Amino acid sequence: MVLYYDCFSGISGDMNLAVLIDLGVPAKYLAEELQKLNVEGYTLDVTSDQRNGINGTKVKVRLSDENTDRHHRHLSDIVKIINGSDLNDNVREMSLKMFQRLAEAEAHVHGKEINEIHFHEVGAIDSIVDIIGAAICLDYLKPERILCSAVELGSGMIKCEHGILPVPAPATAEILKDIPVSSGNQTFEATTPTGAVILACNVDGFSDLDNFKIVKTAYGIGHKESEKPNMLRVYKGELIGAEKPSSAHLMFECNIDDSNPEILEYIMDKLFAAGADDVFITPIIMKKSRNASKLSVLCNESIRNIISEILIRETSTFGFRSYPVDKTELKRDFIELETKYGKVSIKRAYYEDRIIKHKAEFEDCARLARENDIPIRDVYREIEKLLY
Fold this sequence. Notes:
Elements: E1 2-6, H1 13-23, H2 27-34, E2 42-51, E3 54-63, H3 75-83, H4 89-110, H5 125-141, E4 145-148, E5 151-152, E6 157-160, E7 163-166, H6 170-175, E8 181-182, H7 193-202, E9 205-206, E10 212-221, E11 231-239, E12 249-256, H8 261-273, E13 278-285, E14 291-300, H9 304-314, E15 321-325, E16 331-339, E17 342-351, E18 354-360, H10 362-372, H11 376-387
Parallel strand pairs: 1-4, 3-10, 4-9, 5-8
Antiparallel strand pairs: 1-11, 2-3, 6-7, 10-11, 12-14, 12-15, 13-14, 16-17, 17-18
């Protein structure tokens, strides 16, 4: 199953939640998963609505009267909320990736370090719900691939924390680097930073709607009234003549022989948070028989500039190599397995619509071993017995 985002009127966090519910994510499921965040003071209103004669779904994250919630949260505060939740590993990983991207954009715009950045509107409960809700919905739908049209930015001026600024907001423009955009089709801010980061971190490719068979069309209704319909359209379907859709991937490599090896772990974490598919280190011998490390990064071509900047800014290298690679990837999903020691997340891989592999999430196994004061191999044995 492939999703195609048609952003002719831009995208915001609430429009994205609305369109994914319209596409088939149960509103009750989303609300129950969001409760795992242990964040209170809001309700999720989901209603049917209509724009220009077209029916769709509308979502509003409504704050309770006693919760004005305009906290200026740092990235570390949001990481604690996500990691302290009972959400599954895939949802947590997707959510952290989006907030990391937001923090990097804000840091770049304001000329600060990431740990100095505090989120303004995006740090509020409604935006936290929008972003983590997006991860919950996409994890529920489990598309094999997500594609997107050019993204409409809108026009005019917006009032934000730093005063009156032209559309798009600076963070939105930074997030959408190297992504095709359009402007002028709406007279307001059509794409918000929240909407932009959802696309930037989850879309596999930006292109026209070619060779696509539509199975279902969904509409997420926006909150602004305009002559042109303020809505987000998403198609669910499949690509014709492409049994295994391909996407452009790159391999980055650089050799490092003059850096503290401890720093490499930090850089690896940062590359993964930026959206890299894989990061690994290979021991090598360089000239003058110096021991060194080859840092390799596999990523989607759409985040080329982000990965390049991390390698340049964070490592001691004076340059790097990059080249296109073919990537074959099995379809996968996650289930929760109840064992006698507790619950554990299991990743399952499919080939020709058959489950052929299972893998227990290490963090869950380690947690159960600690909680039950048993060797971790006992946890793995129990999982193997239940699965096979």
